Structure formats: C-alpha cells, structure tokens
Amino acid sequence: MLATPRLECIPESPPASPVWATPRDIARDLGRDLPRDLVSLKACSASPALSSNKSSYDSPKRLFFPLRAVLPQDYSDMYTEDVLADPNQLNSLGRPLFTDRSLVDWQLNDVRSLLIIDKLKPEWNGVVPTVIEPGYRIIVLGLDASDQDIVHALVDSDIYKEHGFDRQFRYQTAQYTVQAARARSASAHGLTKPEWRNIIENYLLNLACEAQCRIDYKKTCSAIKRQRAADQQQTITLSPPSPSSNSSTLLKKALLTSLSTSPDFPSKHRPHKVSLSRREKHQIWVQVQTRLYARLGLDWQPDDLA
C-alpha cells in the first residue's frame, strides 16, 4: 500500500542532504550483482593510462531524496495574486482551499501532481532525483513545453494510476485540458507558472471526479439491485404449510424448494434476475455526476442523456 502523506504534516525544514549512489551502490541495495560491463568500465576508469578520459568512463550517479525534501515549500508563484489575496481562502501551506478536495485518493495524487516541476533545483546539479518513498517520482515539464509534451507528461504520470483508466481516456482528458488552457492563455508562446499549474490541477481534478463517480455509480447500482431483489422476494407468495408433524413440514419445504427451480413452477413464484436497463444506468450515472459536481461546487455539466 502506498503511503499517503498529508501535506499539512510536511515541516518547513531545510532541504535534506542528497544521497548519491553509483550503480554498484544501487545493485548492492537491491541485492543484485553489478553487471559485468559496468564493473569493467569502473576498472578502466581507475587506470592511470585512461585518466585523461576519466569523464567518459565515470559511472552515472543517482540522487535520492525523501518525499518531504522534494515537495515545494512555497506555492506563491503557482497562483495569481487575486487567488492568493484573501488569507482566509488559503490553507496552512498557503495554497488555495480549492486544492483540498474530498475525493477518493485525493491527497496521494495531489502530492504526485506537485512532483511535476517546471525546472530542476540548482542543488540537484542537473540530476532528476529519485524519491525514496515508493509510488512517487519527479517529472520535469518546462513552461515552454509544447502541447504534445504537456499531454504526454500528464498521461505518463502516476496520477490516479491505481484506478485503471485506459490510456485513450487519459489522453483525451489531458488534450482537452491543454486546449482549454491555451484558449484562455494571454500568451501566444510559453505558459505562465499559474497557467502551467492550472493545467496540472485541472487534469488531476478531472481524473479524481471520474474515479469518484465510478465508485459512487457502482454503489448506487448495487443498492438499487438489492432493493429490487428484496421487493421481489416479498411478492413471491407460497402457500404456507398446514399445521402437521415436523417431518411433514420439512418434506413440504423440500418439495417447494425443488419445484421453485423447475421450469413448470409458476413464473410468478420464481425470483427473476435483477438487472438495470441501459437507460436506467445512464440516468444513474448522470445523477451521480450531478450530485458530485454540486458537492464540490463545480459548474460542470453532467454527460448528455441523449
């Protein structure tokens, strides 16, 4: 199970010291032997005869950080001044209250979205760090990225990956989000930081709402089916056994049970499989969407019932 840190619990502490690791360190930590070719290269790089070309043979290094050390400590450049103007509309981290959503797996995926960054920190020395905690990774997406680069970065991210959305749905969602943002953008070239962050948050919110709607839809359908099955059971009328000996009563119950599964048994006494029509399912889906959007204060429209 992936850890789901609460952003409010992240201390505003100085950046943690980086942990550098060579392929040998990584192989040792994973309990595997270092590949022979890397061992040979490392031996060659130590040779005095090759010292002038040492940089050509240096083993690549990886930088490891705990999650709290790579998350932003300041969010003021991610939102416009009017959004940040009212302190009462900000949470303890200085982010707008609308970034706190009561949706399935929201905190986990909100943190993942914050790991999409526009540039590397200077102290990372050009290396994209590996997050020590599993389930999180840093993605670099520049403000001047093309629409296709943004779409692919969002689709290939880990945002709501556990919910099994197919790639086509993720792609269409990302593409629509980027196109809508470009239509609102005042710049014909690169995005501003708030516009860039707005794309990421809208993509996150779209997937979150879809995930929540699917869960609520399944629960609603199951509840309706259970109720219909219970109502159907009440309408099945079987003649009660007349007072007699226990053996006679048990015999009649056994006969009734046997007959109820027979094709010759009156259909009105047989329970029918409870199902929902396609239109009923569509109506339930629209109702689920409508309730969720209203709860979140979104002005989104549910899917067309046509």
UniProtKB/TrEMBL annotation:
Name of this chain's protein: ARAD1D25344p
InterPro entries for this protein: Std1/Mth1
Pfam families per the UniProt record, alphabetical: STD1
